[in-house]
Amino acid sequence: MTATFLHVPSSQKANKTFLDFAERFFNVHVANSSSPITKTVSAVRRKSTSDIVAIRDMVRYTKQATISTSLIHFKSEQIINLACSAFKDICKIVRGETRPDQEDYILRSIFEQCFKYDELTDEIFCQLARQTNGCPIDDYLIKTWDIFAITSSVLRPSATLLEYLKNYVSAACKAPGKIGEYAKIIKRCLGKERIRPKRTIGPSTLEVESIRNLQPLLLKVHFYDGKTKALALDYTDTVLNTIKKIREKINLKSLEGWALYEEKVIDHHQRHLQDDEFITEIVGAWQQQGSAASSKTASPVYQLSLTNASHRLIFAKRIITTIPDIDCDPVELHFLYSQAVYHTVDDDEYQLPSSTCIQLAGLHAQVLHGDYEEENIFRYTEVDSFLCKRVLDSEARNWPLEISLAHKKFGNGKKKHEAQIRYLSLASQFPLFGSNHFLAYYKGYWILGLEILIAVNKDGIKFISLQQTEMFQDIAYMELESVIGDTDNRTITFLLKNCVAGKQKCFVFELNELKGVCQLIDTFLPNLIVWEKSFQDNKSEYDWLKLNEETDLCRKKLVQTGTARLVRESGIGFFRSAIRRLSRRSSEKLPTMQDSPKKDESPVRNSDSNQNDILPTKRDCWTFTKNPLRQSITKLDGDLEEEALQIFTWLLMYSGIESASALEDNEPFSLVQKILSEIMQNHHLCNELYLQLIKQTMTNNPESFSKVLSKFWHCLIALICVRTPANDLIEEYLRLHLQRCSIHKHLEEGRFASFASICLSRTKHSYRLRKNVPSKAELKAIASRKQMELRVFLQDGHQLVFGFFSDETVDQLIRKITSRTGMRPDAEGLGLYASIESNGSREEKYLLPSEIMADMMCEFEGWMKTIRSSSVRLSLKKRIFIEPYANLDDPVEIDMLYHQSVTDVFEKKIPLTQEDAIRLCALRAQTECGDYQHFSTGSYNSVTRILPRPIRDLIDAQDIAKLHMELVGLGPQQANEAFLRVLQDWPLYGAKLFGVKQTTLEDIPKKLWFGVGQIGVHLMEQEGQVLQKN
Question: What is the pTM of this model?
Answer without folding.
Answer: 0.64
